[in-house]
Specification:
By secondary structure, the chain is an all-alpha fold. The protein has one domain: Fic-like fold. About 70% of the residues lie in helices and about 0% in strands. Helix 5 runs antiparallel to helix 6, helix 8 crosses helix 12 and helix 11 runs antiparallel to helix 12. The longest helix is centred in the last third of the chain and has 28 residues. The chain starts with 14 loop residues before the first helix and ends with a helix.
Amino acid sequence: MARDPLQPLLVLPGVSAAAAAARADIDRLLSHRVLRRQSAPVSAESALRGARASAALAGAAYQLEAVRAGGIDDVVLIGALRVSAALGSLVGTWSRAPLQVLARLHVLAATGQTPADRLGQPIGDPAVGARLAALAGLLTGSTDVPAVVLAAVVHGELLTLAPFGSADGVVGRAAYRLTLVARGLDPKSVSVPEVGHLELGREYDAALAGYRSGDVAGWLRHCCAAVGLGAREGLAVCEAILRS
């Protein structure tokens, strides 16, 4: 049997405990009584909040109610909203053809920012292509590591590689969420991990810089913390629906 290339990550300092804590936070969210009958509105609100947070992390920050009202013509926000709306239809393909999904995500995110002939086209650097192929192999292969760990690797790799040269942050965060959903951690897509990263503020950039320089454990712990905060955001959505 082939060796699981991600298994060594679980012995890095604090990673297993952080992954278990994130799992507990998600499980707490999934047990909320609102989700027994009303998961669709929670998923829809999660998608909106996730798109708003992802756009904010890309430098296009708007108040949630302004985004909800519509009419904002910022191309970064519009791209993030398009991506968020499409994620549900891409879950089934993600584990089979991740490079195809990444290309589609880039088309959705970068339209209006990137020349049409570059949409969905990775840059021509062979080293980037090789790492993308390796990442696709992780997603189409089998691994026993927790979904949050695999998702963090996907997230970190895509933000590090910036494979398209535009809208890579929005694409990377969408791939991160897709992995959490497709791998069964959050099958109803009701948590909002993007909000978790936004709440952690400068730690997001610092953790990513650490990942790029070899501090993989710090990045994984950060992503686990963001997933936990995203679960709490999902709980807040559930409670708001319960009160309405």
